[in-house]
Amino acid sequence: MTTRTETQQHWKKHVDAAKAADQSLADYAREHALNLQTLYSHSRKINKSDKVKTKPAFVRIQRLAATAVGSVHIELKNGVRVHVSAPIDLASLLAQAAQLP
Predict the structure, then answer these.
(1) pTM
(2) Residue 51: which pLDDT band, with cuts at 50, 70 and 90?
(3) Where are the domains positioned within the chain?
């Protein structure tokens, strides 16, 4: 796990506060006398860093029935898309996908 520097923690607090207040970064920066470009820069770095730390969950899929389909596209809640182009049991895949967090 990566430890944030004091500077990173400082800017993360501002980014989180803007989100919590449901304000745009521009409005938040203006209201708190912050440099907008610096706030945007740290916001991008924080978002990128947070995405890297998120690990996908995998579950074993077992074939339960003979209802196979040739191609499946799934979009998870976090926006990740999965494409399976080999024949696969759809009912089993959906049951297993439903168990993901």
Answers:
(1) 0.47
(2) low
(3) 6-53, 56-101
